[in-house]
Specification:
mainly alpha; 6 helices; rod-shaped
């Protein structure tokens, strides 16, 4: 009789451990999927923002009848291997230049296409901010699961790695001055 009790207890313990394992694994996979989805939205939004910048550059050239390419460095960034964060920074810099040009030139202030572009920029900024916050929140939660016991065991079994935040910072390294403006 005692053998049956021991066997029953072992089956119950194994079942509970299996359920805990499945719950942690599914939660980590769910977070990984949410991170990948938000990364896709960020990529798409950055491509849209880049296209907006190219359109704005063409409008500025035609309205000002000026051959200077105010956004050349920002447009050429697409040919370089850069992170989404670096691309976002470059596009923000270009949009700041665009705002300054609009403030400086009356002809640009009157242009209807540029007004539409400014509305598109504002909408894309809001989308990027919301999506990066969502990305960072889920990355933080996944990283917590990877570090905490007992979910860290599941993470090690399935080779989950600590993920960097949108800005690429690695909070586990010894570099303390990695924030750049």
């Amino acid at each position: 009789m005692s053998f049956l009790y021991i066997l029953l207890v072992l089956i119950i313990i194994t079942g509970v451990l299996a359920i805990i394992y499945i719950i942690y694994y599914n939660k980590m996979q769910f977070l990984k999927t949410k991170i990948e989805q938000s990364e896709g939205i960020i990529d798409e939004t950055l491509r849209e923002r880049y296209d907006i910048l190219v359109r704005a550059s063409n409008i500025v050239k035609s309205v000002l009848k000026d051959e200077r390419d105010y956004f050349k460095e920002n447009i050429n960034i697409k040919n370089k291997q850069v992170t989404n964060f670096e691309m976002d920074r470059s596009l923000k810099e270009a949009f700041n230049i665009l705002n300054k040009l609009i403030d400086d030139y009356q002809e640009l202030q009157k242009n209807k296409e540029l007004k539409k572009i400014l509305i598109s920029i504002k909408a894309s900024n809001e989308k990027i901010v919301a999506t990066t916050n969502y990305f960072n929140k889920n990355t933080n939660e996944l990283n917590s699961f990877i570090r905490k016991f007992p979910s860290n065991l599941v993470g090690k079994i399935h080779k989950f790695k600590i993920s960097p935040f949108f800005d690429g910072k690695d909070m586990t390294d010894d570099i303390y001055n990695d924030f750049k403006l």
